[in-house]
C-alpha cells in the first residue's frame, strides 16, 4: 500500500505528484501505469488513485475513489510538551502520537528546559512520515515553539475571544485558519471550551487521573514538562489559569513517555 | 538521585559496587564519602545507602534504609513481540514498557519476521538502564527469543504443569526460578491462569478490546506480530490454543507501538 501526502489536493479528478514524489513513485517504488496508490490531503481526505503517466519527474494520477473525513476523531487533543534535551525523543513522541491519534502539538520552552530551540521543519517531516505510515487522513498541526508563559497567555486570549465570537465569525475564522494552514478540527477551542490539564511530577493530593477530570468527546490541552519538571512558579501560574493537575500513574516517566501516556489515555477515554 | 542496579545485593548491611560501577560512581558522577545513592536489586528491593569508601575501582556503601516490594504491581504482564526489522524500535519498546510497567518480554520469531536474530545482552542493557532511570525495583525479565510455535508449545506445557503442581512444589519451583534468575513475580502462571491474548491486524468481528476480555489483577500474555502481521496459520493455531483476538484501536500501529499500546492498556486496567 503506497501512500503519498498531497496537502494541495482539492476535489480535482486528476493530480500530478511533485518532482520529488514523482521520482520516489517511479524510481524508488518502481510503480508504473495502471498501479494504484493512496493519497492523503491531511484534512480528512483519503483518495485512491491510478497512475496514468509514470515519468521520472512527472507522475500523473487519476482519482478513482474519494473518502472524506476518513477516521475523523470524536475529540480534539492538543499536547504542549517541553522539547527533550535529546531531540530524538521528541521526534519519537511525534511519530507515536501521530500513530495513536493527536490533533495539535506545541513545543513549550520552560524555565528548566535544557533545549531552548527546535527545528520545526525537521519535526514536521517526522509527523508527515508517520501520517503516511499509519494512514492518518488528518495531519496533526505542529505549532511554533513558545515559552510557557506565552502559551498561558494564548489560552487566556483564546477564551476571551470565544466569549465574544458568534458561530458565523467562528466559521469564517476556521476558513481563514484552513487557508493559513492552521488547525481545522471541528473541536477548536472556538467551538468547545478546553479542558486544560497539567501533568507535573510534584507528589501532592490535588493531582487526579484524567478519567476523573475530563469527559469524552472533549477538547483537551495537556501540558507536559521538561526533564526537570515544571518549576513551582510555572505550576502555580497554570493552576491560577484554571489548569487541572493530573497524574499519569505511579512510575517515573520520561518527558516523551509522559506525553505519549497522556495521548494514549485521552484516546482510550474517547473510544 | 543516583541509582545503581545491584542484583546480587541480599540483606547485608554493607555493599561494594563492582569495578565498573565504582568507576562510574567515583569518577563520572564524582560522588564522595558521605554522599547518598540508591540501589535496586531487581527483585523488589529499593535501598538507600551512604558512601563509606570512594576509591576509583572500589566504592563501599553502607545500607541506611531498605524498602522491600517497592511499587509491587498488582498483576503480571508478559508481552511476546516479534523483533522489529530495525532493532532500535524494539529497544525503544523495551525502554518505554519498563517505564510504564511490564514483567516479562519474549521476542518471538514469526513466519513473516524479517529479523530472525536478537542480541539479548544488548536488549538487557536497555532494560536495566530504564529500570534505573524510572526507579523500578522489579527488573523485567527478558526471555530468550523463540519461534511462534515454540511459544505456543511452552504455554501448553505450562498449563499442563499447573494442573499437576501443588502449592509446595510451586514455591520450590519459584525458589529455583529465583536462583536461576528467571521471573519471580507472585503472579506466575503456576499460581494464576493466564489470560492469553493475540493482537492481530486482520479486521474481523471476533477481535475485542482488552477491557472486554480481561479482569484486573490478572496474569496476561499478549502476542504482538511483526511488520507484516501474523500469518493466518499463526493466528488460527493461537486461537486453537485458546488465545483471544484483541484489537488495540482503529489506527494502523507499528509493531513496537502496538506492543506499547497493549502495555499501557493492561496497566491502565489495573490501576
Describe this structure in words.
2 copies of one chain form a homodimer. With 271 residues, chain A is α/β, with parallel strands linked by helices. Chain A folds into 2 domains: 3-67, Ribosomal Protein L25, Chain P (Beta Barrel); 76-269, Alpha/beta knot, CATH 3.40.1280.10. Helices cover 34% and strands 22% of the residues of chain A. Chain A is built from 7 helices and 12 strands. The first copy, chain A, has helices at residues 19-28, 87-100, 120-133, 148-163, 167-179, 232-240, 255-269, and strands spanning 3-5, 14-16, 36-40, 46-54, 59-67, 76-81, 104-109, 141-142, 146-147, 194-199, 219-224, 244-245. In chain A, strands 6, 7, 8, 9, 10, 11 and 12 form a 7-stranded parallel sheet that branches. Chain A has a 5-stranded mixed sheet with strand order 1-3-4-5-2. In chain A, strand 7 (104-109), helix 3 (120-133) and strand 8 (141-142) form a beta-alpha-beta unit. In chain A, helix 2 packs parallel to helix 3 and helix 2 packs parallel to helix 7 (255-269). The longest helix of chain A is centred in the middle third of the chain and has 16 residues, at 148-163. The two termini of chain A are 26 Å apart. The A-B interface holds A 71, 92, 96, 99-101, 133-136, 209, 249-254, 257, 260-261, 264-265, 267-268, 271 and B 71, 92, 96, 99-101, 133-136, 209, 249-254, 257, 260-261, 264-265, 267-268, 271.
Amino acid at each position: 500500500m503506497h501512500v503519498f501526502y498531497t496537502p494541495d489536493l482539492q476535489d480535482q479528478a486528476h493530480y500530478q505528484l511533485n518532482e520529488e514524489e514523482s521520482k520516489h513513485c517511479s524510481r524508488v517504488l518502481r510503480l508504473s501505469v495502471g498501479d494504484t496508490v493512496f493519497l492523503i490531503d491531511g484534512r480528512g481526505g483519503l483518495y485512491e488513485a491510478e497512475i496514468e503517466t509514470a515519468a521520472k519527474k512527472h507522475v500523473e494520477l487519476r482519482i478513482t475513489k474519494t473518502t472524506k473525513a476518513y477516521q475523523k476523531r470524536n475529540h480534539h487533543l492538543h499536547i504542549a510538551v517541553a522539547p527533550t534535551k535529546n531531540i530524538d525523543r521528541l521526534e519519537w513522541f511525534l511519530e507515536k502520537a501521530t500513530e495513536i491519534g493527536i490533533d495539535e502539538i506545541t513545543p513549550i520552552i520552560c524555565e528548566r528546559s535544557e533545549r531552548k530551540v527546535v527545528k520545526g521543519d525537521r519535526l514536521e517531516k517526522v509527523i508527515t512520515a508517520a501520517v503516511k505510515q499509519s494512514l492518518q487522513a488528518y495531519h496533526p498541526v505542529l505549532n511554533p515553539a513558545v515559552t510557557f508563559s506565552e502559551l498561558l497567555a494564548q489560552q487566556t486570549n483564546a477564551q476571551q475571544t470565544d466569549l465574544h465570537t458568534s458561530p458565523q465569525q467562528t466559521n469564517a475564522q476556521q476558513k481563514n485558519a484552513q487557508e493559513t494552514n492552521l488547525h481545522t478540527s471541528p473541536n477548536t477551542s472556538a467551538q468547545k471550551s478546553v479542558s486544560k490539564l497539567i501533568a507535573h511530577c510534584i507528589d501532592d493530593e490535588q493531582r487526579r487521573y484524567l478519567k476523573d477530570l475530563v469527559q469524552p468527546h472533549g477538547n483537551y490541552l495537556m501540558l507536559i514538562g521538561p526533564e526537570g519538571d515544571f518549576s513551582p512558579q510555572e505550576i502555580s501560574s497554570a493552576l491560577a489559569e484554571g489548569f487541572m493537575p493530573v497524574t499519569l500513574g505511579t512510575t517515573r516517566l520520561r518527558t516523551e513517555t509522559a506525553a505519549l501516556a497522556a495521548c494514549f489515555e485521552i484516546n482510550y477515554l474517547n473510544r
